[in-house]
Design goal:
The protein contains 16 helices and 20 strands. It is an alpha/beta fold and about 525 residues long. The chain folds into two domains: about 325 residues, NAD(P)-binding Rossmann-like Domain (Rossmann fold, 3-Layer(aba) Sandwich), CATH 3.40.50.720; about 170 residues, Alpha-D-Glucose-1,6-Bisphosphate, Chain A, domain 4. Strands 3-2-1-4-5-6-11 form a seven-stranded parallel sheet, with helices on both faces. Strands 15-16-17-18-19-14-20 form a seven-stranded antiparallel sheet. A hairpin with a 5-residue loop joins strand 18 and strand 19. Helix 4 crosses helix 5, helix 7 packs across helix 9 and helix 10 packs across helix 11. The protein starts with a helix and ends in a 17-residue tail after the last strand. One of its GO terms (molecular function) is protein-containing complex binding.
Amino acid sequence: MSDRQNKLICVLGATGYVGGRLVPQLLNQGWKVRAVGRSQAKLRTRPYSFHENCELAEADLFDRESLEKALQGCSAVYYLVHSMQPGSSDFAEKDRIAAQNTVHAAEQAGLERIIYLGGMVPDDPNISHHLKSRAEVADILSAGEVPCTTLRAAVILGSGSASFEILRYLVDRLPAMITPRWVRTESQPISIRDVLFYLSGCLEHPETAGESYDIGGPFIETYEKLFRIYQQEAGLRKRLIIPVPFVSPKLSSYWLGLVSPVPVSLAVPLVMGLRNRVVCKDYRIREIMPCELTDCRTAIRRALNKVEQEVVDTCWSDAGTLGTPEWAICGDAGYSGGTVYHSAYRVKLEGCADDLWKKIISIGGEEGWYCCNALWSMRGWLDKFVGGVGLRRGRRHPSEVSVGDALDFWRVLDVQPGERLLLLAEMKLPGEALLEFTLENTIVGDTELTMTARFLPRGLGGILYWWSVYPFHALVFKGMARALAEKSGCRLMEGPELVEGPAPRCRIPGGKDNG
């Protein structure tokens, strides 16, 4: 039997942007893969979860025991994780602990190698904290007993990547751009397709163990040049780019957070990393794994085609955990955790449950929220203004949802086809909020749709927030119910009406956090 049939490969971060694409590539090459994430529910929604050579495992990088269990029996591990809150004060410490735990678990499991995708670090003592952390993680992984291969990339271009989405939103939405200095800084972008080629190729080349390599595309470009390429490939009119040298990277990152789907917490480290010229210092990897590298124009064209055809495999917003609120887990007493406020509206429709469900799971993104879109947009801009994700994040697919998907400023917590859609608010709030859509068939064949908002306030500010938005619930929910009925072709029989009485406490089955 070949190594591919004998050896089990572990992928940490299997639901992230790169990991979600690497797992199917390894499976297609004949490897046995153990896909690891913090949420089994999220892993089970991935297409690769049904492959006969794929195992799913739940592990927390801050829990050594679960990590050791996930790595047992594997020969190699891909480390494709990093802090999803790079703007927080302790993100570097979290990255450090996660890397140390992985080294320990790899040694305990007797792994042959670690393969890490990190960032290209310039020779400059004033690099961003984000890049410093990436470099430190590489050092930690390389210092252990298990040989580590480090691949360092700059900008990754592909449908759904954060860099591509920033590029797309800026050029699509702005006919004129006042640009800071960083748009003229040189970098060496690489296609996601080529990143996957190098990552998977490391398994075939044992001489790469214990080595570090820069990986980049065939050409060195500036972001301004990428703007021009995107504009041409998208068939847009020429954009006016006005250079303004006194705009700081940090200030421009806040502007990016407002006009693009990428939140400020992620835009800041991305932009701060663009202050420095990041190009390959060596090209040894090309001699070991020769291939025809993808130029930026081709990479952007492919990404645009994927977006237009609605076949984006993974997205930057897929990464992260499902932070299911503890009060939403089955098993808690009704009085535990504090008072959960709720507001529910119900409507009865004549039949057509299937058509109604299709409209419910198509909500958000380009489709909008069927009612009061101006209010939703205003809430999204307010969220962006205070550093949240806002509405521009959109959705991965216009008519399909899976557990873990981002949906504007919501995250899909649970999907039961034809019955239930549960969303967790990821906007900036003085508390935690859930939005639930449920369908029930009556004895006579009619359909009842119930829309419920639930909110656990944090302090007095949270209570004041709930009562300030409560009056709008009638307007929004009644409007959404009528619009859903109209768009799905269902005849409205009763309602919409406010449902009185306490809502049930149990939201997520199992009594265990799905995050």
